[in-house]
Design a protein that fits this description.
By secondary structure, this protein is of the alpha+beta class. The protein has 2 domains: 3-241, Transposase IS200-like (Alpha-Beta Plaits, 2-Layer Sandwich), CATH 3.30.70; 252-301, no CATH class. It is built from 14 helices and 4 strands. It has helices at 20-36, 60-79, 98-109, 111-114, 152-155, 175-178, 181-188, 191-199, 204-211, 222-225, 234-241, 252-267, 277-291, 295-301, and strands spanning 3-10, 40-46, 50-57, 91-95. α1 (20-36) packs antiparallel against α2, α3 (98-109) packs antiparallel against α9 and α12 crosses α14. It starts with a strand and ends in a 5-residue tail after the last helix.
């Protein structure tokens, strides 16, 4: 019997999605893992150092294994990296009840806001937020699609997927063809209700509402959903939720792009994983002086803790 789970995989102080291709490959691996394990995807959010996933499945461990192993191989091959990508064990929480699910979906889609990356969920491209009530929210532009015979360029010739999956010209499997978007829309009922929840502030009311489910489960909170993600404190995430973030600052992906496509080619290197520690330190000094990047961000993007 399928149960609903919130799942999270973190790479800690290492960036696991460095560019657009990585984000697309990450979602595609998740989509293929859903099909392989007979699971149903609900919503997701891919951040530079971690990802939040929600799915109905009989085998959450199998789902995560079939997602993370293919992606790790792709990432390691692309960047000449070795070893397991991400933490040893993923985070897993069973979601039971209407209010429990509402909260889990909201925290997943609002994750980029809580990390100070964007001011509203709809401004973030690597999540399900813009696929829900797409037409009603004025986002009904058609995807430019690839013919199915061209999918292999992005997911390999041996990939197994249903005929319902569609892929856009960037090599990303279309979220609306992969995830159970109607289920999410039925959960919120109306576009207005969905929009309200996307902007709703964290409060005690969230927990009180979840207790009405009588599910003997801990309520979904920002603290327990994010407790293994060490990027920001709870206080800082709540501050970001209130709009107190500098959205002009360089994101991890922006800094990785500068490193991978501007600095490394000048050194004749194709990856930060090919650099010695002394070379990493020299580049770190450049990033600090030229771009005023913070120490922790530089360490993540330069894989200095790898």
């Amino acid at each position: 019997m399928k149960k609903t789970y919130h799942l999270c995989l973190s790479a800690g102080e290492e960036v696991m999605f460095r560019d657009l291709e990585d984000y697309n490959r990450g979602f595609n691996c998740f989509a293929l893992a859903l099909h392989k394990t007979g699971s149903v995807g609900i919503v997701e959010s891919f951040m530079a150092t971690h990802c939040h996933l929600m799915a109905e499945t009989e085998d959450p461990e199998g789902l995560m294994y079939n997602f993370r192993m293919p992606y790790s191989k792709l990432f390691n091959h692309k960047y000449d990296r070795k070893g397991k990508l991400g933490e040893k064990h993923h985070f897993q929480m069973e979601i039971v009840g209407f209010n429990h699910k509402i909260a889990a979906v909201c925290y997943t889609l609002r994750n980029p806001v809580h990390h100070g990356v964007v001011p509203i969920p709809y401004a973030y491209p690597h999540s399900t937020a813009n696929s829900i009530f797409r037409k009603e929210m004025g986002k009904d532009a058609d995807h430019k699609l690839l013919p199915q015979k061209a999918f292999y360029r992005y997911i390999g010739r041996r990939a197994c997927y249903p005929d319902s999956y569609k892929m856009d010209v960037n090599g990303l499997l279309v979220r609306e063809s992969v995830l159970d978007i109607p289920q999410v829309e039925n959960l919120f009922g109306t576009p207005r209700a969905f929009d309200y929840y996307m902007g709703r502030k964290t409060s005690e009311e969230w927990m009180k509402e979840q207790l009405r489910d009588n599910n003997n489960r801990p309520p979904v909170t920002l603290e327990n959903i994010e407790h293994r993600i060490q990027l920001h404190s709870l206080t800082q995430m709540l501050s970001y939720e209130n709009g107190k973030a500098d959205y002009r600052k360089m994101s991890d992906s922006d800094l990785c792009h500068i490193v991978d496509y501007e600095i490394l080619p000048e050194l004749g290197k194709r990856s930060v994983y090919q650099l010695s520690q002394s070379e990493k330190r020299r580049i770190a000094e450049i990033l600090y002086k030229r771009f005023r990047a913070g120490e922790s961000q530089i360490k993540r993007c330069m894989a200095m803790v790898y």
